[in-house]
Amino acid sequence: MKAWPTxxxxxxxxxxxxxxxxxxxxxxxxxxKIATVLVFCIGFxxxxxAQFLKKLGKKAEKAAERxxxxxxxxxxxKKTEAAMDSILEPGKDGKNTKxxxxxxxxxxxxxxxxxxxxxxxxxxxxxxxxxSESIQIYRKFDFVPGDELLFYDDxxxxxxxxxxxxxxxxxxxxxTKINEDTNKWLxxxxxxxxxxxxxxxxxxEEFTLEFDVIADGLNxxxxxxxxxxxxxxxxxxxxxxxxxxxxxxxLCQFIDPGTIVENNVNGTREIxxxxxxxxxxxxxxxHHISVAVNKQRFRMWxxxxxxxxxxxxxxxxxxxxxxxxxxxxTDINRENIYLSNFKIAKGGSDLRRTLISEGRxxxxxxxxxxxxxxxxxxxxxxxxxxxxxxxxxxTMNLNIVGHTDSDGDEKANKTLSQRRAEAVRSALIDIYxxxxxxxxxxxxxxxxxxxxxxxxxxxxxxxRVEFVKQ
Length: 470
Description:
globular; five-stranded antiparallel β-sheet; disordered N terminus
């Protein structure tokens, strides 16, 4: 703004010397001459007619004057605004007036970029998408899914409009499709005592839970009491557990009411708190929930963000029997909550010790887009642990082996498994800087199944990645 006074002569010159102004004045002169001729002609007419024509001539003259003034004002304003833009906001006129970026500036921008990888590098990355922004955001994600599958339901075996067969509820719900998404989704309804319970009992001391959520229709009118609850308790029925731990995360948009954590020990509440972490923008989009239970410890992530990590949320020495999901506070007429891709697995504590002690580890926690070698970001916790082993054990080399289920062509599956193994290898190289010479990749397709390919659970077990010490 300090430069503004020095620009006034420029604007003045633009206004008075523009070609448009001169053109407008020429037009005015021509119209004036015509009007003059009309007035001259009036002198030869009869008295009454002459006065009429004289008035008409004056009106024509004034009309022409006003027309010219309006046009000059309009065009001059337009040119003046353009001049103002060129002074105050260079480049706004569509011309590229920005100086070329120097090498130092490019480096600075790269350092400030949280992904640490340029768009050009992203484009040249492997089929894994290992250089993509979403993958890079998850580079410090430390959730590791369990390695023994207990419950899996992508809802593929149930019909649209039905309630899924592997679940129980005392409320209502139905399977639906959402736009072009290929998955089926369970639409749930709110209620203070409405539970959605997967058919699974006798949970181990250490297990993980994962699922996807779409929250549609949320806006500034969404209640501050709108929450989605994940509860782990000592029963899997509709009664309130006497021993339990739970987390409720908010769906409200006009304020951040906080993520609620609570427990019961022998029917007595010992913990109740609201953790302030603003996730309002996160819940507007499709998001992934990850939960890890290690005895009393309860951790929960939303996408790559760790929301909760409480060392003694669950009661000590009490067997947990079930998982319950509850929705409350949403408006059933305009706000819809959908769930899908449920996975509960035993373990999930640490793959690093297994790899070091046994020289190999197998996991179905590295996930890919269907039919592709694009790694899903939530898989990065496992890849990160593998990188930590390699950084510690500097003489260890690994062969990465990809496996698929039997869906599709056998030859295509072998090719896909090879590409997926190479994608994991690329992620270790590109993101965690593991030397490429220490890693090899191999694809075995559907040739070595460990589960029944006729069931969703079996297929999930067969889609796995192995790391084998060489």
